[in-house]
Design goal:
Layout (H helix, E strand, L loop, with lengths): L3 E6 L3 H10 L6 E7 L9 E2 L2 E5 L11 E4 L9 H9 L9 E2 L9 E2 L4 E2 L4 E2 L4 E2 L4 E2 L4 E2 L4 E2 L4 E2 L4 E2 L4 E2 L4 E2 L4 E2 L4 E2 L4 E2 L4 E2 L8 E3 L4 E2 L6
Parallel strand pairs: 1-2, 1-5, 2-4, 6-8, 7-10, 8-11, 9-12, 11-14, 13-16, 14-17, 15-18, 16-19, 17-20, 18-21, 20-22
Antiparallel strand pairs: 3-4, 22-23
Bound molecules: coenzyme A.
Amino acid sequence: MTARPLLLIGAGGLAREVIAAVRLLPDVWNPVGALDDSTALHGTLIDGVPVLGGLDSLDDHPDAAVVACVANARRPLSRLSLVSRLGLPDERWATVVHPAAVTSGARLGAGTVLLAGVVITTSLEVGRHVVAMPHVLITHDDEVSDGVTFAGRASLGGGVVVGESAYLGQGALVREGVKIGAGAVVGMGAVVLRDVPAGQTWAGVPARPLRGESA
Ligand SMILES: CC(C)(COP(=O)(O)OP(=O)(O)OC[C@H]1O[C@@H](n2cnc3c(N)ncnc32)[C@H](O)[C@@H]1OP(=O)(O)O)[C@@H](O)C(=O)NCCC(=O)NCCS
C-alpha cells in the first residue's frame, strides 16, 4: 500500500502527537508537512516534519490529506471554525486512529483523531473533526457531535450526549445520560452529574458553573 501524504494544520503539541501516531502507520500515512499561520514557525521542523507555511499555502498541496490539529479549552469552537474556513470536501480530511486505540467498529467522521489508548466500547457514531487524546473512554449509546475535544482520560458513562465543539478537560468524568451542550467547556478533573448548558464552563466535584452562570 502506498502511504498517503498528510498535512497537519497547526504546528503545536497536538500536531506533534498526531505525527507520533501516524509514524506507527507508515503504510497508511506519510506526514509531509505542517501549515501554521505563525510566521515564526515557517521553515522550522516539528519532530522532523517541516512547517511549510501558512494556511493560505494549502492549495500548493492538492494531493495531501489534511488533519486539523487545533484544540483549546478557551476557544472550543476554533477547530470547526478552521475547518469551515478551509472549505475542503470530506474526502480530503484524514481520519487518524492510533494503532493502540480500540474502536469496536464505531463509525468515525472525517477528520477525527483518536490517540493512544482511546477506548470506544460499542459500535456507535462519532462526529467529524473530533479529537480524543490518550486514554479517553467513550461507552455504549454515547453521542459525540462534530468538533468535540476530549483531553486525556476524559470518560463518558453510557448514553451521554456531547454537543458540537464541546471541550472536556483532562480526566473529566460524565455521569450516564448527561448532556453536554454545544460549545460547553468541562474543566479538568470535573465530575459532571447534571446537564451542562451550551456555551457554559463547568468545573469541580460535583461540577458547577465556573463563572456564576445559572445552571
Ligand atoms: C476550566 C478551565 C477551562 C478554566 O480556565 P480559565 O478560564 O483560564 O480559568 P482560571 O484558571 O482563570 O480559573 C478561574 C477559577 O476557576 C477555578 N478552576 C479552574 N479550573 C478548574 C478546574 N478544572 N476545577 C476546579 N476549579 C477550577 C480556579 O481555581 C479559579 O478559581 P478562583 O477564581 O476561585 O481563583 C481550565 O482550568 C481547564 O480545566 N482547562 C482544561 C485543561 C485541559 O484539560 N487541558 C488539556 C490540554 S492537553
